[in-house]
Specification:
By secondary structure, this protein is of the alpha/beta class. It has four domains: 12-283, Aldolase class I (TIM Barrel); 299-325, no CATH class; 326-388; 396-508, Double Stranded RNA Binding Domain, CATH 3.30.160.270. Helices cover 39% and strands 19% of the residues. It contains 16 helices and 14 strands. It has helices at residues 31-44, 58-70, 84-94, 110-117, 121-138, 154-167, 183-196, 216-225, 247-256, 272-283, 304-312, 340-350, 356-372, 378-388, 434-445, 490-509; strands at residues 12-15, 48-52, 75-81, 100-107, 142-147, 171-176, 204-209, 230-233, 396-404, 412-420, 423-431, 451-459, 468-476, 479-487. An eight-stranded parallel barrel has the order 1-2-3-4-5-6-7-8, surrounded by eight helices. Strand 1, helix 1 and strand 2 form a beta-alpha-beta unit. Helix 1 runs parallel beside helix 2 (58-70), helix 3 runs parallel beside helix 5 (121-138) and helix 15 runs parallel beside helix 16. It binds 3-methyl-2-oxobutanoic acid (KIV) and zinc ion. 3-methyl-2-oxobutanoic acid binds next to strand 5 and strand 6.
Length: 519
């Protein structure tokens, strides 16, 4: 259900992780990864999934169509600019969905109309009437967005909205595209639009806030207090530049401060942590430890005073329970003696449902890791499984790596075996340090023109035998991808991360290059 007609306090959660979120540099995902996220979002209970921008590339089109075809529950939306070519492509992509939406937009601020669109305001009004009516003929659910709405002239914005509703839009979205608004001002804008537009009662008003000043969530909630009943947001706040409003922060604020904000959502909050981990693992955008709700420290209590308070009463320093976001205090302690049943139960506890082959491969890696590591934490298993799943389409696979390093060698040396399209190849390369030598060996076995943009290592848990989780960002012909790898050996993790990124680039090479897009 996407229009809260029956319950005036029900807020529609419109997730745009797969569209605005994917527009973050390096966050691009393969079709399989997008499908996993879409299925997770359906389990999470969002109302609308914006699955992509179908005109952007064949890959985007295929992903939106496949999600529309296979993911049930939420309404599936696609984005389109205000022209018939975009709208046709979008309509075709969302058509298989049990409930579909075309989301079309155009800029309405003086700055954007003059410099970006080079259109007069009257031409923009005509484009709105034409694009919305055209979309409405192809799909019975049309959303219209005023790009840069928060910096638009309110009188002109009222005319635009009235036109869009008259042409058939049932959702009106007001973006704070550049994250410029402040809560009081943005809320007042939403309230005045709802009051002043004559036919506003025929549409659900929506907000879409970017986080350039760190106010995306506050602005979104101010919009709801002013009458908006749809929030556009992303998991972990992923999105263009500083990102979008974070879904988990919005949902948990509405739940925790229901006394002040008496609105509800359809989100099963116990799925939040699992979804956050999935998005972080797929995109390589690691969640900062002190991030609200889903950061590693969000429920950690370090200081003696806090620990003492917590022991006496959890409410002293916790305003919500870890369980409410799906952080379970583990009941199953895993180690090298754990068998298949215990491992399966642990995966269930962590929210992973693996098929038989994937389960067997994960179990073998778990046994291998348990042999080498004193203590196995949930984070170890999460890193291991995240590292393994979703590699079915990989053309390049890691086989083995030996390193000669240390202060007594002139140049570090890496001997590497990779399987490329099923055939094993081996080489030895040197470098300035073991990571450099490893990456040189990959380049020798699989020559390419991609350049390294980011190399980042973080320890999954405490202790010197912690697994390393490595992120590698590669760029080739304007395309950026992130790869991840996890292993107890930092160099093996680095090698896996580089190969993961290369595999993603290979998938991207087969897609058409995106046009210069403006969403
Ligand atoms: O930020 C923005 O204005 C957008 C629109 C396309 C909704 O993403
Ligand atoms: Zn946006």
């Amino acid at each position: 259900m996407t229009a809260p007609a029956s319950d005036p306090d029900r807020v529609v959660i419109f997730d745009t992780t797969l569209r605005d979120g994917e527009q973050s540099p390096g966050a691009s995902m393969t079709l399989g990864e997008k499908l996993r996220i879409a299925r997770g979002l359906a389990e999470l209970g969002v109302d609308v999934i914006e699955a992509g921008f179908p005109i952007a590339s064949n890959g985007d089109f295929d992903a939106v169509r496949e999600i529309a075809r296979t993911v049930t529950g939420p309404r599936i939306a696609g984005l389109a600019r205000a022209n018939r070519r975009d709208i046709d492509r979008c309509a075709e992509a969302v058509a298989p969905a049990e409930a579909a939406r075309i989301h079309t937009f155009i800029s309405t601020s003086p700055l954007h109309m003059k410099h970006k669109l080079r259109l007069e305001p009257e031409q923009v009004i005509d484009a709105i009437a034409d694009s919305v009516a055209y979309a409405r003929n192809l799909c019975d659910d049309v959303e219209w967005s005023a790009e840069d709405g928060s910096r638009s002239d309110p009188d002109f914005l009222c005319r635009c909205i009235e036109t869009a509703i008259r042409a058939g839009a049932s959702t009106i979205n007001i973006p704070d595209t550049v994250g410029y608004g402040v809560p009081e001002e943005f809320g007042a804008l939403i309230r005045s639009l709802i009051e002043r537009v004559p036919n506003s009662d025929r549409a659900v008003f929506s907000v879409h806030c970017h986080n350039d000043l760190g106010l995306a969530v506050a602005n979104s909630l101010a919009g709801v207090a002013a009458g908006a009943r749809q929030i556009e947001c992303t998991v972990n706040g992923l999105g263009e530049r500083a990102g979008n409003a974070a879904l988990e922060e919005i949902v948990m604020t509405l739940k925790t401060r229901h006394d002040r904000m008496p609105y509800t959502t359809g989100v099963t909050t116990e799925q939040i942590m699992k979804m956050s981990r999935l998005v972080a693992a797929i995109t390589g955008f690691v969640v900062q430890p002190n991030k609200a709700i889903v950061g590693a420290n969000a429920f950690a209590h370090e200081s003696g005073i806090h620990q003492d308070g917590m022991l006496k009463h959890a409410g002293t320093y916790e305003i919500m329970t870890p369980e409410s976001i799906g952080l379970t205090r583990s009941t199953l302690v895993m180690g090298k003696h754990s068998g298949r049943n215990a491992f399966r139960a642990k995966l269930d506890e962590l929210g992973y449902g693996l098929g038989d082959n994937a389960f067997e491969a994960a179990f073998q890696r778990f046994k291998d890791l348990a042999d080498r590591k004193k203590e196995m934490f949930d984070e170890d298993i999460i890193a291991l499984v995240d590292d393994q799943i979703g590699h079915a389409e990989d053309r390049i696979r890691f086989v083995a790596l030996d390193i000669v390093a240390g202060s007594r060698v002139d140049r570090q040396r890496a001997s590497l075996v990779l399987a490329i399209d099923g055939t094993e190849h081996e080489t030895t390369a040197t470098g300035n340090g073991p990571v450099d030598a490893t990456f040189n060996a990959i380049n020798a076995l699989f020559p390419h023109t991609a350049t390294l943009q980011l190399y980042q290592v973080h320890a999954v848990t405490a202790g010197t035998d912690a697994q390393a989780e490595v992120t590698v960002r590669l760029e080739e012909d304007g395309r950026t991808v992130n790869g991840q790898g996890a292993d107890i050996d930092t160099l093996v993790a680095s090698c896996r991360a580089y190969i993961h990124a290369l595999n993603k680039l290979l998938v991207k090479r087969t897609r058409t290059a995106p046009d210069a897009l403006s969403a």
